[in-house]
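Dear colleague,

Thank you for sharing your sequence with our group. We've completed the structure prediction you requested, and as agreed, I am returning the results in plain text so they can be pasted directly into your records. Please verify that the sequence below matches your submission; if there's any discrepancy, let me know and we will rerun it promptly.
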Amino acid sequence: MNTLQLVANLGFILFAKGGPLHITTQFIDGDVSFFWNGDPGVPYYVLRIGINQTNISWYRISGSQYTVKNALLYDSISINVRAPGDPSDNKLTYKVSKIESNVDNSVKISWTAPYFPRAGEYIIFHTNKVNRSIISVYSNDVTLDQIKYEYHSRPLTSTNISFEVKDITRDDGYYNGGTNTMAAWSGGGVVLIVHNKPSKPNLQGNINTLVGNSLELTCTSSSSTAPEYYARLHPLSPLSYTWYVNKTQLYGETDKTLRLRVSRNHKYNQYSCTARDKLESDRSDHVKINPMYTSDKLTISPRPSQNLYNKLLVKEGETIGPYTCTADCNPPCDIMWKYKDSTTGGFCDVASTGLLDSQIVNRSIALYRCIAQYSPDKDFKIIENIILVVLYTSDKLTISPRPSLNSYNKLLVKEGETIGPYTCTADCNPPCDIMWKYKDSTTGDFFDVASTGLLIGHIVNRSIALYRCIAQYSPDKDFKIIENIILDVHYLDEPQLVYNENSPIYTYEELQVQENTSLHLYCHVNSNPTPTIRLHRGGNANVIAETNSTNWLNHTIYSLQCSDSDEYTCTGESTGLSSKKKVFRINVNCDLRLNSKDTVELIKGFMVGSQRTVIIKIPVIAYPPPVTSRFTWVDPKGQMINGTNVALLKTHALYSFLITSVVLLPEVEHYGEYSVQYNGKSLTKIPITKRDDFLSESDRKSTFTIVTTSNDKTRTDMKANEKIKKNRKQEQKNYSLVLVWNLLFIWNYLSIGLSIILINIQLDGTAL
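Please find the predicted structure tokens below.
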């Protein structure tokens, strides 16, 4: 037997640099624990440095112990311990000593002890699952537990400990020495790793395999290397395998699994295997493959009379069969018949033997299938089909998605909207020819829409009464079925207006009609369903006529008045549709006359020399608007008054105006009845009577402040000059009239709320 020797130097080396801590080690079940004599109640910081370790960092731990798992992965382990608040390093390096050997070999184990006891004994321990002493060394004698151990160190008091383990069996584990039992786990010892033959392989696989299928034979074995804490570190170390067929090695096959494609000749072969780690296992028991085979086809007799597509044509309701189905299998196959339901896709049993009795065919039967199953392998089966072509026609058409019809079985749709797409199908075999047509409600004729069952989206108009799906059967041209989608097209046109029987009214047209005549209005709204028609005046809230029972709205104004002048709107409304309207205007031509709903205002003006001005505001009704130049004033003597200024202001309505006049009365007796005329015809008479409240001298010389609007003119203060007035007396009078006229307009503008400027006027001498 070969002898392996490992010289283990000091099992641990302590490097203490300035620290008060004393560090010791223990090796237990493959793990190394470090202990120090510090206070276990405070945290310590440990720096672990391994040879194969790349990430080095401090660990904060509680207690006075730190354990490194799986120490056999390292050649040595170094740590540095620091106490809280103390920067001193306390270092220790633990050397991991291990030696490997095979069963039945011998091995020498050695290490250096820190000292040999002067009195007493030095005990060598073997620790695996239990701890036991194997050698006791005294200064003059050695005691061995078994004859398999031999102690070699001389003199006996030498600290270079060396001994031999002979005929290794299960001697794996940790070896160390010392003066007491605690030394069994203390650091500085040696781990003995023992390799044994792997376990005898167990050959597994499905030896009853169908010909042509793959077969996998698996050689199962396990490593016997010890101790356990070494073996668990190498779980993925694969064993190598050797395969044999009829005691002949298969070269190139070293995997755990042998894969074969089974043929009938494999029934003559025997297979076995061995496994190898450091040592080779015993050979497994041999296995023999039992190839299984079956027929590669089925035979149906009599052979069905099929067409070029290998299908059997049959009319719905006819009978087929009987047929017999056979298969060449060993052992015999189990044979049955099934048919396929074309509606569900599922198969239903027909016969549990190879005989298929006569069968009545319907459209739901897609085929009859003979199935042969092999009893040793339920996953194996052979099938043979008799595919049917069942000829039949449909008794109805299906349109999808189904149109949402109303209670009258009509599809309600707005004109301009799109219906569809719809798909029309018929259950025919061979397939029916399907097309779409639409019916024109104006002519009653049908027109092609689609030559297939797909009706793509179509924009609907009022002339389309329905869409029709038509299915025809190619074997029978006289066969035809139809399905209609009847439409109820909703639409709403713009109102059409006519007045006085045959005169059209256009949008925003202005009708010029005469006062005291009649006006007949007709509003027609073409719509489905019947619309609600309203005639509005001025705004939508002022409804003067309404109907919802016909497409015509009639309204008559029997005697037109100026007050009928306004904007009118005819609207058509229908539920679900946008309303339509037409706006027009009626202008009633009426002669000028006083507005009886208002009053005439007479305002005393100012003196211009010896003459007095009078301001008169007369409300009138007229259309078209009156012309200011046609207004005249006649004094009580029947004489027309010159220098009269007239202003025309529109009020709240098209036909309503305010006539404002500034009249300069004669210098002498200006009291009496004055007449206002238009086009020479009297409009109204105004009596002017004598009054005693003339303006005082101080009133005439006062300053007037007037608020008015001006966006494009700038008015400046005007002051009278006595020297100029003496030379321009007549001009002063004319200027005063113009000033009064301007004041009149300013006053009128104030009444309608314009923006503000300030005008200061001062008249000296004779004032208004």
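Summary note from our side: The chain has four helices and 67 strands.

Kind regards,
the structure core
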